Amino acid sequence: MIKAPYLLFIGDATDKLSIKMAQGAVDWSPDQCLGELSVAGCTVTTGLPQISIAQAARMGAKSFVLGFANSGGVLDAKWHDVIKQALEQGLDIVSGLHEKLTDIDSLSQLASNLGRQLIDIRHPQQSFKTGTGEKRSGKRLLTVGTDCSVGKMYTSLALEKEMQAQQLDADFRATGQCGILIKGMGVAIDCVVSDFISGATESLSPDNTSEHWDIIEGQGSLSHPAFAGVSLGLLHGSQPDAIVVCHALNRSHMRGLPNSQFPSIADTINLNLQAAKLTNPNVYVAGIAINTSSVTIDKGQEICRAISQEFNLACTDPLRDGVASIVNHLHRAPTKAITANTDSAIANRSELAAMVKRA
Amino acid sequence: MIKAPYLLFIGDATDKLSIKMAQGAVDWSPDQCLGELSVAGCTVTTGLPQISIAQAARMGAKSFVLGFANSGGVLDAKWHDVIKQALEQGLDIVSGLHEKLTDIDSLSQLASNLGRQLIDIRHPQQSFKTGTGEKRSGKRLLTVGTDCSVGKMYTSLALEKEMQAQQLDADFRATGQCGILIKGMGVAIDCVVSDFISGATESLSPDNTSEHWDIIEGQGSLSHPAFAGVSLGLLHGSQPDAIVVCHALNRSHMRGLPNSQFPSIADTINLNLQAAKLTNPNVYVAGIAINTSSVTIDKGQEICRAISQEFNLACTDPLRDGVASIVNHLHRAPTKAITANTDSAIANRSELAAMVKRA
């Protein structure tokens, strides 16, 4: 339904994290991206060349992708004109915002007149049942995070790529708009009616062959005051055999909430294992993925080594150093899991925590 | 918007828990309920006299309330005819199902032709923001449960009634369709888009005077594989100062899931306190409410006394014995809280657990 190639519109974004939909498409579907368009005031870039709508149309662009996100997900009316220009140049519009393009009369009417599509990829077309918690066949891995936007989708995509390279049967399951844009399918779990969070997640990774892995993209964090409910429903519905804990260096508070506390990696492991056991008592931690982009490569590797020793788990920066170490761990089907009982032992060793914070 | 009095339609229900919307209206808004209507196969009753739609209309009924619920919340097409009869007799239709009456063309058209309302009380009309976790003024109490349908709404309404009788400033905040029917306002939290669970809950109990109590109706259970996400978002958004733990005797598995495990009261206390601390570090347990309707009054009181001693907390059946003991505890503003550390101590004392199970 989504036609490539894309022109990625990033508006007047000033926060690199807010253009993660555009950046994700560039990083994971580069062949589908022709260029980016921004306007005055924008201070970030995906790295693609700046091209106009007219240029993009001449180059064969089929879709104009709104590549930015904002808390609340409402489309600022100031973007209506640029969207209309894209429609008039023959492009479909792809949006991952909560507010539906199809609910905006002027856009809806113009698209209809021109025979163009308005594609609200965040809004599920299917209907869901409530969850059951019943055990499904096949294996599942879920990425979980200390916070939002710490690299859960990238880690999941890197895991799928590495597992497929190792001839393992693995499929990435998208749970957010960016993942859906990259894979062309999935369910934006934060847009599902809350009664169906777990049920929708169950339908996203149905029964499969015993050696098949679903690599399910995590959302939010159990420690985020706004989004923990989504994270918990996703965790229960995924019934993961394995979780991979994702973290980004240099965070001092939860994304968007300056007064919030940031959880430790140990807290995150314990909270997630405790909750995950409700639908899979054998859940284990397969590894830790750290976004070290805020420090040098050497420093990042030093931190990953220290975390790996501390938790006796594979720890890596997926983009800089790959995820083979995590996949190898997974492949060996470890019987010994980090359990919630390690909490106090870990809490006493505060040096590492300080190191991660300072990095 | 909802006009009284009501005719309560309970269809062919065979499970008392499935007509809790009708029963709630009878128990808490008796003056607004004229009678009930059921059809062949129905084995339960609210206790109100059986009357026909025509009788109800003659008696002045203004609304035909769909007083049953089902998992999934879809309206069986077999009820379209009886709804049409009610419309033709001049009644509005009130539904608490997920599926919207206004989305069913034949009903929507007939209602429009006749000038009647189709009121989908589960579907929020307002729009919400994502949560912030910021501290709000005033006090909040949230009822939490070992399971769905264990008495959280009844306990909340009983607390409001008792607190108002004691001249305390307290307001019940409805989070489900039945509570909304009773109070005429609220937000059906399980029908909110999942990104906004906490944000919607925050808007439901805004800043208030320092001595004011919001008594927030809980939903689901942190131990329910289908609905824990809703419960967690509601807990974080409520930022409760106090929680009251609700439980019904004689449950062997989570509602609707025969293969699930049932949590202990101790588990439920610990899980909820641990999670609630994210947005209110001073949260405490104000008491335990037990639905003892499955045993004799004497046996119920014996069990409540045993649980009270075990946890050193007020424990009562709200309907049989009132909630004054809990409100008194609340009023004394206890400084000593049950904390998550009591878990192992409680787990070792298994006699009580066995007693509660056997009861």
From TrEMBL, chains A, B:
<dbReference type="InterPro" id="IPR035086">
    <property type="entry name" value="DgcN-like_C"/>
</dbReference>
<dbReference type="InterPro" id="IPR027417">
    <property type="entry name" value="P-loop_NTPase"/>
</dbReference>
<protein>
    <submittedName>
        <fullName>DUF1611 domain-containing protein</fullName>
    </submittedName>
</protein>
<dbReference type="Pfam" id="PF07755">
    <property type="entry name" value="DUF1611"/>
</dbReference>
<dbReference type="Pfam" id="PF17396">
    <property type="entry name" value="DUF1611_N"/>
</dbReference>
<feature type="domain" description="D-glutamate N-acetyltransferase-like C-terminal">
    <location>
        <begin position="130"/>
        <end position="327"/>
    </location>
</feature>
<dbReference type="InterPro" id="IPR011669">
    <property type="entry name" value="DgcN-like"/>
</dbReference>
<feature type="domain" description="D-glutamate N-acetyltransferase-like N-terminal">
    <location>
        <begin position="39"/>
        <end position="124"/>
    </location>
</feature>
<dbReference type="InterPro" id="IPR035402">
    <property type="entry name" value="DgcN-like_N"/>
</dbReference>
